[in-house]
Amino acid sequence: MKIAIAQLNPIIGDLKHNATEILAAAEIAAKQGTRLLLTPELSLCGYPPRDLLLYPGFVELMLAELENLAAKLPKKIAVLVGIVDPNPQAGEMGQKPLFNSIAFLENGQIKQIFHKRLLPTYDVFDEDRYFEPGRESNTFILGENGQEIRVGVTICEDLWNDEEFWGKRSYEQNPLQDLVVAGVDLIVNLSASPYSVSKQKLREAMLGHAARRYQKAIIYTNQVGANDDLIFDGSSVAFNQVGELVLRAVSFAKDLQIIEWDYEKKDLLSATITPAQESEEEEIWSALVMGVRDYAAKCGFRQVVIGLSGGIDSALVAAIAVAAMGVKNVLGVLMPSPYSSEHSLADAQALVNNLGIESQKLPIGEIMKTYDRTLEPLFAGSEFGVAEENIQSRIRGNLLMAIANKFGHLLLSTGNKSEIAVGYCTLYGDMSGGLAAIADVPKTRVYSLCRWLNRSREVIPENIINKPPSAELKPDQLDQDSLPPYHILDDILYRIIHKHESSAQISAAGHNREIVAKVMKLVARAEFKRRQAPPGLKITDRAFGTGWRMPIASQWLNPRS
Predict the structure, then answer these.
(1) Among this protein's residues, is 116 annotated catalytic?
(2) CA-to-CA separations, 177 to 184, 213, 546, in angstroms, rounded
(3) Which of 65, 383, 483, 486 makes the best surface tag, with the fewest CB within 10 Å?
(4) What's the confidence (pLDDT) of residue 561?
C-alpha cells in the first residue's frame, strides 16, 4: 500500500485555497496509486487560527468546504484532513465549543472524525482556550486488494507525552500507548509543529524511541511555511517498527512524498531520505528567509524597505530580504547624520553593491537642526543625552514609514534579540516596521550567520563584520559604552530568558554580580518596548512573541532598591 505525505503551506483562513492545495496533492498522489494521503494538523484552515475560531461563521464555512472537498477527491484515495469540529456537548460541565480534529474522507464522504486528545497550553500554544480534548483512541481500517491495516491517528501533541523518553508525563493520558493496546498496525501523526533551532533532532529522537518502544511504524506529517511570528519547517519523517528512519521530506518547502506499507512485514519500507541541513546557521537562514517571504506574501506585500546603517544587523536583514523577495524587490535607505562615520556610509554602499539592490540616500542633518530649534526653549540648560540621540532614530523611523506608506512596501525592522532584550532600541525609531526579521536572533548569532553567509563569497562586507558595533548617535559611540561585550551579554540573557535562572545562579556560573544585576534591570525595564514592537520571527524555544507573557508593571527582575 502506498501512503503519501502532503507537506502543505496553508494560508490561515483561506479555506478555498487550502482545499485546492489538498485536492491538488490528492490528485497527484492518486495518479501514483496512493491509497492514503496525510495532511497536517488543521490543514483546511491553517495553524494557528487563533480567535478566528470564535466566529461561528468561520467554522460553518470550514465544514461546508470540507464537504465540497470530499466530493471532489479522487475515488480510490482516502485523505486525512485537519479541521475544527463543533462539540455537541459545548457548555455542559464547562466543555469547550470545538475539537481540534482530523476528518477521514473516502469515496466522496466524511467517514470518520478524530479528535486531538492532548491540548498544549505552554509557550505559543493556547489550545485550551478553544478546544475540548478528545476522550477516545482514534483508529480506522483501511483496505486494498483484500488486505487491511488498522491505522491509529494522533494529532501533534498526542505524540509528546512518552514518559519513558521525557522522564515524566505532562498529561494523564498517553495516546500512543492507548493505540498500541487498541491493536493498530501503523501510527500516523498530523502536526503543525513550530520550528526552533535543532528541534528536528529532538523530534526524530522522540519518534525513533516511540517506534522502538511500541514496535509500531510511525509517519509524522508536519505543516510548512510561516504564519505571523511562527515558522513551520515541515521536515516530515517516517520510522519503521524498529525505530529506523525510512523517510525524511525537505525542510522549509512544500513537499509530497510517498512511502510503501508492506502487508507481510507489517512495516514501512525505505523511501526518500532528504539529507538534514548541515548546520544551525543553515537552518536559521532557511527559516528566516521563508519567514520573511511568507509574511510578505500572506499579508499582500511585494516589496520591502530597510534602513541601512552600515551595521551588521541591517546588513543581515537586507541579505535575508534579497533571498526572500528577490533583488528587485528590496529598497535600502541610507540616512546619515552628522555623527555617521565615513566608513559606515562606505560599508552600507558596499553592501548595496554586493547585494545589487536599489538604494536611496536621505541625509537627516537638516531635519535634526529643525528638531533642535523646535525643542530649544524646552531643553535649554540641559545636557545632550538619550532624548536627543533617540530623535535621530525617530527621524529615520518616520522617513522609512513614509516610504513604506507611499509605495506600499513592508518595512523590515532590524533589531536583534540582544538589543530588544535590554531595550537598546528606540520606540517609534529603529523599532518601527511591519516585521522584525531577526528579533529572535542574539547578536552573537548574527555574527555567526554573517560569517556562514560569507563562506563561499563576500555577501556581507568584511568591514561590517570586523568593526566594533555602534549605534552612532553621538561622537565615537560604541555599544560597549552601554552594554557588556555581546558574548557576555548573550550568555546572561540566555540564562535569564531561556533557563529562568536567578541573579545568584548566573553569578555562580562566573558572571560579575553588578553586570548581572544591571542586565536583569534592563530586561525588566524594556518590557513596555517589547509590547509595542512589530511581530518577530521565532527561531528559539523562548522568543519575545506570542509565547512571552511577562508583566510590564513588575518588581521581580527590577526591584525598587
Answers:
(1) yes
(2) 10, 10, 32
(3) 383
(4) 47
